[in-house]
Prior knowledge:
Helix content: under 10%
Number of strands: 5
Largest sheet: 5 strands, antiparallel
Radius of gyration: 10 Å
Oligomer: single chain
Structural class: mainly beta
Number of domains: 1
Amino acid sequence: MRDLNDMLEPGMLVRHAGQPDWGLGQVQSNINGKVTVNFEHQGKVVIDGARVELIPVFDS
C-alpha cells in the first residue's frame, strides 16, 4: 500500500477504500507516509499510508 500512496501529491483526488461514504477527497499533503486528505463528507483526515489504501481518482 505504501508504494501506491507514495505517489500521491497535493491536489490529487482520492477515495478511501474502506470508507466510501466519505466521498471524494483532495490530498493536502503527503509527508513521511502521513497523507492529509480533505474529504467531502468527513472533512480533513490524516491517514497513515502504511496502513490505509487510498485510491487515486482521475475521472471525478
